[in-house]
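Researcher: Next sequence.
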Amino acid sequence: GEARNAIITRTVDGVIAIDGEYGTLSEIALAIKMGKPVVGIGTWKLSGPGGRGKEIIYRDDPAEAVEVLYKLLREKIDD
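Model: Next structure:
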C-alpha cells in the first residue's frame, strides 16, 4: 500500500505515471515532493496553490515519455 509507494518513489530517479488511481496519485505527489521528474501518460492532472501544476510533463506516446524522462534526468546530472 502506502509504504510500497514511498519505497518505490524513494528509490527511483524519475517517474512515468500511466493512468492510475489514488496509489498512482500518491506516487506522483511523493516524487514531486522529492524533486524527482514526473512524466504522465493519461494520468492525473494536478494544479497546486496559485494554479501551479507544471510538475508533470504530459505525453501520449510511451516512447516519447521515456525520451523526455531521460532528457530530464540527463539535465539534472549536468546541473
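Model: The chain has a mean pLDDT of 92. The CA atoms of residues 2 and 23 lie 7 Å apart.
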